[in-house]
Amino acid sequence: MKVLIAGSLVLASVLAVVPAHAQPALYRYADADLALGEKLIRDNQCEACHARKVGGDGSSIYRPQGRIDSPGALRGMVEYCSTELNLGLFPEEVTAIAAVLQRDHYRFPAQGNAPR
After folding, report:
1. Around Cβ 70, how many Cβ atoms within 10 Å?
2. Phi/psi at 78 (nearest 5 deg)?
3. SS (H, E, C) 28-71
4. Please, are residues 74 and 102 in contact by the beta-carbon 8 Å criterion?
5. Measured in Å, how far apart are the chain's first and last C-alpha atoms?
6. What is the pLDDT of residue 110?
7. Contacts of 49 by beta carbon, 8 Å cutoff, 6+ apart
8. Buried (b) or exposed (e) across 42-63, using 16+ Cβ within 10 A?
9. Sign of the dihedral defined by the CA atoms of residues 49, 54, 56, 60, in that order
């Protein structure tokens, strides 16, 4: 419980310092390194892991009902995989992977056109 409270306080303090207009930039993929994302997906054998989890070629893992419904949720899921598998990805690497997944599987509308 103490860890959860401490983590929430850290997140709240970071968000308080970062201007609100800058926060959505975390989920913009325009500047992401797609070649790096492709390499990381390949090197970390993401597709093989997904196939073990859901069967077939693993592609049914994308867009599970109600789970990944925004660019932020997508990036969060990549971060979750990195943490769970102890990959130690840097933030720019997480973004690069999420950008490739956005391009190849999710295709969320551009941030300016997304419904609120």
Report:
1. 13
2. -65, -40
3. CCCCCCHHHHHHHHHHCCHHHHHHHHHCCCCHHHCCCCCCCCCH
4. yes
5. 32
6. 72
7. 58, 85
8. eebebeeebbeeeeeebeebbe
9. negative
d(CA 52, CA 29) in angstroms, rounded, equals 28
Tokens of 85: 């598998």
Q: Please answer whether residues 114 and 27 qualify as being in contact, where contact means their C-beta atoms are separated by less than 8 angstroms.
A: no
The pLDDT score that the predictor gives to residue 40 is 97
Task: Give the helix, strand, coil percentages of the chain, each rounded to 5.
Answer: 70, 0, 30
Q: Which residue has the tokens 């970071």?
A: 14
Using DSSP's 3-state secondary structure scheme, residue 19 falls into coil
Phi-psi region of 61 (alpha: psi -120 to 50; beta: other; left: phi over 0): alpha
In the chain, which residues have pLDDT < 50? 3-4, 6-26, 113-116
Rounded to whole angstroms, how far apart are CA atoms 18 and 77?
Answer: 22
